[in-house]
Amino acid sequence: MSIITLKVNGGTHTLDIDPSTPLLYILRNDVGVQGPHFGCGLGQCGACTVIINGAAVRSCITPCSAVRGEITTLEGLAKDGTLHPVQRAWIEEQVPQCGFCQNGQIMNAKVLLDRNPNPTDAQIREGMAGALCRCMTYYRVQAAIKRAAVSLAAGGPVSDKGGLA
Ligand code: FES
Ligand code: FES
Fold first, then answer.
1. Percent of residues, the chain, with pLDDT higher than 70
2. How far is the CA of 12 from the centre of ligand 2 (A)?
């Protein structure tokens, strides 16, 4: 066991844990966030994705001792009670079906838009390729990313009719 300090969504958590424990388990069981999901546990589906220092990271295969820097989970995207434009776009496009993969879709989309604020359809498909969805929500994911890009460029949310609110 080791004393490990993790910074999650603006808070600091000091834990006495096995340093080989996957970050996903620590986040869900010790920190108490439920956004990242256990899907494959093998780094292949994306359901467990969190953002660390601006990069999308698969927390199921990341030992907690390997983490350096600030961890953002789905719960950390909203600020002061206001949803992030990506989250709003997800609601407005009614993206989820069962919802299980959607943490990974949203977190990957956030990183994609941070790096490329105006992605083409091909760039979205490429950037989101590792986020798998058994419910085949890919077209709605793509629409939501394009809606979020418009919203972010305008500095505000987008109405449910696709225009600026
Ligand atoms: S649960 Fe981590 S990539 Fe599938
Ligand atoms: S919404 Fe069901 S797995 Fe993606």
1. 94
2. 31
pLDDT digit string, tens, across residues 103-124:
999 999 999 999 999 999 999 9
| Residue bearing the CA closest to ligand 2, atom 4 | 133
The residue whose C-alpha atom lies closest to atom 3 belonging to ligand 1 is 43
Count CB neighbours of 145 within 10 A. 27
Task: Output the pLDDT for position 70.
Answer: 96
Q: How far apart are the first and last CA of the chain?
A: 51
> Which ligand is nearest to the Cα of residue 137, counting in written order?
2
- The domains of the chain, with CATH numbers, are 2-76 (3.10.20.30), 85-154 (1.10.150.120)
